[in-house]
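#lab-general

N.A. 3:47 PM
ok so I finally got the sequence cleaned up, no stray characters, all 547 residues accounted for. can someone with queue access submit it? mine expired

B.Y. 3:52 PM
send it over

N.A. 3:53 PM
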Amino acid sequence: MKNLILTTLSLLLLPTIMNSQVNIEKAKYQAILESNFGTFGSGASAIVAKDGKIVYSGTVGMANIELGVPVDSKHVFRIGSITKQFTAVAILLLEKQGKLSLQDEITKFIPDYPTHNKEITVEHLLTHTSGIQSYTNLPEFGNIASKQMSQEEMIDFFKDKPMEFAPGSQYNYNNSGYFLLGYIIEKVSGKSYEDFLQKNIFDKAGMENTFLGNHSRIIPNRAAGYSDDDGTLVNAMHISMDWPYAAGAILSTVGDLLKWNTALHEGRIIELKTLRKAFKSYQLNDGSSTNYGYGWEITNLFGSPSYEHGGGIQGFLSYGIYLPKEKVYVALLSNCTCKDATFPALKLAQLAIGKTPKSVSSINLGKGAMEEYVGIYQISGGDKRRITLEDEQLYSQRIGPKLKIQAYAKDKFSIEGTLTTFEFVRNEKGQIIKMLAHTRDGKTSAAVRTDEKPMVFEAINLSPEILKKYTGLYEITPDFALDITLKGDQLYLQATNQDKFPLYAKDKTSFFLKVVYAQVSFFKNKDGKYNKLILYQNGKEMPGYKK
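B.Y. 4:20 PM
back already:
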């Protein structure tokens, strides 16, 4: 009788224990979401699935701050460039139907497109190797971002620009290519891009909350978009949804993105044999790999193959990852461009496949110990990594933003917002001679310490009257310009299609940025007016002239 009671108690306790373990795992996923988005006021929605079954679905923050509406998993977000997956699969469907070939030249479908005597194929558009200039990189793009335009007008906007390179010779991420693919889909299928996706993808996958975006349509549960204006959350800039089109106009939910991924890999959208072509890294003319297929980046996460893509469009950031070996899918959508979606999505995936390292605590180093690491480290290929110390915090900076690094063991550091770790190497005398960077794809790169010292500038205050003289749009190349603006007593720099950053004065005519290692100097013309600047970055001097 006693054994019977114990057995009965064990059976009663088992579901409780299992539920407790499930709750602990969900709490770990939720902690990642909250630690990355919990302090911004805007929101995020995420989903994690294994074998098509949801193991975590969570939200944080607000879908609409003004109305006080919290994010729910049913909320619809702009997914930006994740749209490219749908466009790529639509092209493969048309190829399967015999209506086009990936090796067809685009002039077969757009006869008057100027190819500058080059052979540009459909595959070049899919793989960002066409050499066509991306319209979102053009300095004048800001002039049309909010205008309603037909597809023909949009194509006219960029088609006559000079080619960047010969087709197939280089990779350069390109929205123009995917816009043209959308146009080709319509020409070949006889249906609108939206109708083709609805019938051949959305309906087949059971995606009931996915739409091609526009402002006039009533979309239930549409989340509002936000951006960061110098530390203040503001409504995202209004844009026309005509220009994102097949490159980035879709809106969806995390649940619908899971349905898409599941249907795709179950062969319900397209034959798996055909789909595999999308997950093969394209090779350039010289045989080098681009790590990009058709609508997906082809990479790995700590040894596990992965197919990934992110999206960024005014007010929204997104990221999606599929790990075929473990059959894990992660989708993360956020409604503010103030916080990157890539890192938390990767952390969710890392947790799902059991590749999360054992918890390590940060250790505090004294100022003297931190100063040991300060220096400039030469990376093979010409780039340099700068390790600086500011206000008792170490930073690493290569080409992009300056990132905090935190020690977790002697000579070992993690980098804020990335899965990369650093390890500093010493010689027999205990002197630091180089640093090793260990990245998420299992690769290690070395940078040798040089005798150079990173420059740290002290900012001075200049009056708004002086700063106003420098404002204006300075063209560095036909495709790249710097917009210098003034707000209050703070000068700002905004490069073409990039965020706006503060400029700090080191003297009356020379300024520096804190987010990237760059300086700007202004120069007068013979009339005493400032009409020229020089951008100093990565060892280059780039002059720009006021338009």
